[in-house]
Please model this.
Amino acid sequence: MAGIDENIVREYFELGGFLVRQLQKYQVQSRKKRAEEEIDIVAENPLAREGDLSFIITDEDLPKIRRAAIAVRGWHTTTFSAATLNSSGQIFNFLQKSALKRLDSIFGEGHKICKILVLPGLPKGRAERQKSVSLLKSKGVDGVLTYPNMLQSIIDKIEPNNNYQKSDLIQTLRILKNYDMLKDPQMDLFAKSRNF
Model:
């Protein structure tokens, strides 16, 4: 499933004006991944402008990112918490020196590179969420992207009347949007409560 996860991330950044390169086109199965194989995607925004970046990245933050190294963790059945992040060392392998050194050969030495971790989501509770964010920052992560934010952004940018034939993901979402199977987010003020 890593292919679709990386595809979502790639499309999100491309729609944001980035030049995107997927570093590995293969899955490592017969051996342990080397640190330099842990960075899934690199992206560069030639029109980036300076500004402060939010840790939980949204569409408003994209223009502030010039260069990014992105690790995609699409474990959609796992709830990410500080405990999960702490217990799974492989989440942070893309921050190892050998992985970051590879970025010098891609972007050149001395450039500031935003290290982004893509996760299904962060904990909902304020205290647990803050613990997770503190842990991520302490490990060297510069920002987090979540799938719900990326998918909603992609859906919002899709025009039902355009043909996105070159992207299976966007074309599928366009078809769903065209047939009103994807709705705009809204508050449901008059929903019936089932359980009191």
In short: The longest helix spans residues 2-15. Helices lie at 2-15, 82-87, 97-107, 126-139, 147-157, 168-178. Confidence is low (pLDDT under 50) at residues 192-196.
